[in-house]
Every structure is written in structure tokens, then in C-alpha cells.
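Troubleshooting entry. The earlier prediction with flavin mononucleotide gave an output that would not parse, so I re-checked the input for stray whitespace and re-submitted. Clean input:
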Amino acid sequence: MTRNDNIQTDLREFLAQVEAGGELQKVSGAHWDKEMGAVTEVLYREKVDKSPLLLFDAVPGYAPGMRCLYGMLGSPLRLALGLGMDPEKAGDRRAMLDLYRERIKTHEPVPPRIVTTGPVLENIDRDDDVDILKFPVPVHHELDGGRYIGTACGVITRDPDTGRVNVGTYRVQVADGKTAVSYISNGKQGRIQRDKYLSAGKPCPVVIVVGIDPATYIAARYTLSDNVCEFDWAGGLTGRPLECIEGELTGLPFPSHSEIVLEGEISPTETVPEGPFGEWTGYYAGGARPEPKIDIKRVYYRDNPILTCAASQKPPHSHLFERCFIRSAGLLDSLEGAGIPDVKGVWVHQAGSGRTFVAVSIKQRYYGHANQVGIVASQVNPIGYVGRYIVVVDDDIDPTDINDVIWAMGTRSDPKTDFTILDRNWSSRLDTMVTGDKLYNSRVVIDACIPYERIETFPKVAQTSVELAAEVRAKYPDVFG
Ligand SMILES: Cc1cc2nc3c(=O)[nH]c(=O)nc-3n(C[C@H](O)[C@H](O)[C@H](O)COP(=O)(O)O)c2cc1C
């Protein structure tokens, strides 16, 4: 495990790197009520992962310096910077994935270092002084049920049995200046921890980082096994302990360079309506429901704080690129961990909202290999939750190239024999195809590999060979430019 000082645990250092890379755009005067979200979306739809990081300032009704940021890691360059990789590699997804996985392979958790000072303590609002609407909290989408302060955030809880601290990115809506409410999907570690307190009739202590640094944000959204704390994992990513402060009320740790941190407790008895919210599926799915109320009793924030935002919606959107990248890496890890040989590549596609359409490439070694890979991929992290289509292709197909994948489906799979449908899988109320309280879905594994018994005799691919392509390029340079 080597130390990587290029990975930032301070958002402002990261912004300086992004600005130097030419991808920071400052926007002045956009309103918190739908405008910031709309500017982000419209620009992203036009430019996709060439869209800049947007830093909104001078929000109407708020003092200059109270800022909102969208699209922190939403381009290959910004993700490379966030992960401390050579920005030169940002053009090549497969190379980036390999580099990242190399780092993850030697990853060893590094526990945080508890400190008593840090920029986030520049301002502290306590009890009656708490007003979470002092920040320009956006209504991100036109039909959202309210203002969401937590989107690109980290919700921190502690397991009452084991003491393990969990950090998860879960949406957090403002109920009023002193209360909030979060939607944590069933099965998520934060939900399991929270419910242990609530079912015992006790309030659940919570800290919510709503102005988050890149390293902690990457860790918070990562599905880790439930004995690893995300702070330790972030420390392992950077190779140095994350400096954390302990909250005055809960003792829960949070990064000392955070921009804005809320601290309080989740009520075992009171609920408030939560939702709807434009979600990663591309819909306002899930409607509005009562969720446990969160009383905010402390707010810690830096001078001129930055609220970090990530508004999901119909793909593509400003935080989908990194989502697909990180999930692809996570799925490769899971498949390798399951002991399956010769998995050559994985891509979790943006068009599938980063969950519902996944391609895995393999070098076929035995009968049933493709189906085995597909079935395992359909159930393990991070696709086990709300997966839908898993396509397994041969290693001459680039899984990141949707045209290549569809071509393989159309020419190497026969729906009658090569589609395996799995029922009663882990889903969510956000799943548009799930109704009622039974949160199951079905999914299909598509074996789009050449049938193993026909590998030697299958028709040859009609594509110019690498050698002939190089020859004609060299011979006719004017044509290729
Ligand atoms: C921007 C963003 C928003 C998210 N919002 C939610 C959410 O509202 N509820 C939820 O259950 N998961 C949400 N997730 C997914 C979780 O963060 C993710 O599954 C994570 O691994 C959960 O952490 P855990 O494994 O510690 O439970 C979101 C992820 C991202 C990147």
C-alpha cells in the first residue's frame, strides 16, 4: 500500500486541480428553486462526460460564498483526479479501470486519526441557532417533494451491537430549518444500523456530511462488506489516515475538512413525509412516504461553505460516469472474489442508469462458463440490488461499447436457449416495475457468447484484420487524416 497524496481529502484542493485541468465552470445567480438542477442537467445532456464541474454562487436570497457544487466526479478527468490517477489516462476507460483495480487489490484499510481542530469547526450552530436552510439547498428537479440538502453526501451511523461506523450516500430532504428526513433503501447498511436503534425504541445518533470531500464521497457510495468502515477504506485509498473530528453530541466521527456537517438523531416514534425525488432510474419512482424524522442539533461548517449535490435523473446525468466506473470495478472484484476464472472485462452502462444493463466479457473455458458468470454477476455487489439485464460476451467484444454488445446479442444468442430468467431478486421501491410491498424483481442473464461447442466452427467475423487496417492506414494517410 503506497501513499497517494494526489487523492484529495479537501474539496477545495480538488477544485483547484479541476480548475487547472480546465473543467471548472462558475455560475452566478442561478436560483436554488429548480434552476441549478436544470442548468446542470441541460448542460450534461448536451456535453455528457465532457460537461464541466459546476460551482454555483450568488444564489438569490443567499450571501455570496454560500455555494453549491454539481458533477464532482462526472468526467473521466475529474474521476482520474479524484482517484489520484494520471489525468493522461482519462481517455481510456479500460486502462483507468485496470489502474484503479490494481490499487484496490493492494488496498489495506487505514483507520482515521481523531483530531480536535479542522476547517469544518470554523462555524458551529447549536440547538436553537440551527437553521439548515441557511444554506442554498436546492429543489433539484421540477417534481421533487421539497428541498434536498443531502444528495452527494455521507450519512454516518454506528452499529449498536458491533460499534462499526458506516458511511452511506442516502438522500436527505429538508423538512424545516431544524429537521430532515432520509430515504435509506431496505438492506443498506445504514438502514440496518438505524433500524436496530429504532426497533429497540431508541433514537439513532446520526451525522450527515453534506459538503463532502472526494475521497470520503467515493467511499460512502461504495458497497463494502459490513465489517469495513468507509473511513478506513478511504484511508486505504489515499494511503493515509483520514483526519476526523468527533461530533459534540454523538461522538460519531466526520472528516475535519468537510464543508458542511449536520449532527442529530433519528426519532424512533415520529415520521415526516419524504419524497418524491427524481431518482437514478430516471423517474420520480417511489412517491412520497413517511420516514423517520431527523432532529438536527448541531451544524458545523466552513466559511463560504460548499454544499455538494448530485441530482439523479433520466440518463445520462452528471454523476453517472463515476457510478458506472466504480460499479464496474466493484463487479470485477466480486466476480474475482467468487473464484470465477477468465473474466476479462465488465461495464455497467450509463443507459442502464448504472445498474440495469451490465456487460461482462470472458474467455470461455468450459461448458456453462458464460451462464455461471452471468448468474453470479446478477446477484453479487454492486449489481445484486435492482439489476435487470446481464449480458455475457466473448473477449473479442468490448463490454464498454454498447454497439459491440448489441451486435453480440443479435448474432450469438438465441432467446429460446440463451436467456435465463431469475425470479424473486433484491429490488427496491424505486424500481419502476415493482408494485406493492413485495420488493422483488426478476432479471435475465443473456448468454451472448458463441456456443461453447461451436467455438471452432462458428462463422468468422467479417472485420478488417488489425494487420490490414495498419497497412491501409499507413498507405493512405490522407484518407485517415
Ligand atoms: C448520489 C447518490 C445518491 C444515493 N442515494 C441513495 C438513497 O437515497 N438511498 C439509498 O438507499 N441509497 C442511495 N444511494 C446508494 C448508496 O449510497 C450505495 O448503495 C452505498 O453503497 C450504500 O452504502 P452502504 O453499503 O454502507 O449501505 C445513492 C448513491 C449515490 C451515488
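This one parsed fine. The two ends are 44 Å apart (CA to CA).
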